[in-house]
Model the fold of this input.
Amino acid sequence: MTRVLTYGTFDLFHHGHVRLLERLAALGDELYVGCSTDAFNALKGKKTALPYRHRVEVLEACRHVTHVFPEECWEQKRDDVQRFDIDVFGMGSDWKGEFDFLGDLCKVVYLPRTRNVSTTEIKDMVYDLQHELRLVKG
Amino acid sequence: MTRVLTYGTFDLFHHGHVRLLERLAALGDELYVGCSTDAFNALKGKKTALPYRHRVEVLEACRHVTHVFPEECWEQKRDDVQRFDIDVFGMGSDWKGEFDFLGDLCKVVYLPRTRNVSTTEIKDMVYDLQHELRLVKG
Done:
């Protein structure tokens, strides 16, 4: 049984998330996902459209995901690798090098992200769409 | 084998979608989902944040969904019920009564929607969030 671990916020769940989760899941038999809590995001200066509990609901409904748990701080990763008996730690390549320090506990991989898609870009698209709508409505 | 059928746009996939799909799936063994194409949405005067192919990718990754196909016009429903050998046609209760005309082919049910969540509300939230960000950035 090969277990894969990743982390993320997963706000406004989109095809970029799906593709990354699918490729991570394909590296093993089970995929564990640490989802950033609202408190942890606040600490990072990040504000999401959807609260933690709703982001988790959507993640749990994804067929590539085995188990979702809260990511509450930067420091929990070594503990998580050990308590879930993780074989592969995987993140998008935007994090390249950042988690090499886990290399003594498990394999660490960075997968390429889908081009031209991020939650930020989707938020910008939605903004433009709603802005247009509001202009039309007056 | 009981087959359930539903339709929708599923833009900015959220926990309201997940809950509805989960409850629809629980009515049978397989859930078929007709996803509105961009051309059909244009006809309805509806513009989505995400194009058809990306909305489909997210739907297909949902563990409650068996098969996704394009919804291209209002008139295809009777054909779809027959070609997929559907037993239950289910929609959110915002459509109550609208599809009773399929009652001679299959069971027709309307399920309550999740309170306080819709793609429109999420778009408004994102708008406010981005608006705030742009004000901060100047």
Notes: Chain B has one domain: 3-113. The two ends of chain B are 58 Å apart (CA to CA). Residues 28 and 37 of chain B are 25 Å apart (CA to CA). The beta strands of chain B are 3-8, 30-36, 67-71, 88-92, 107-111.
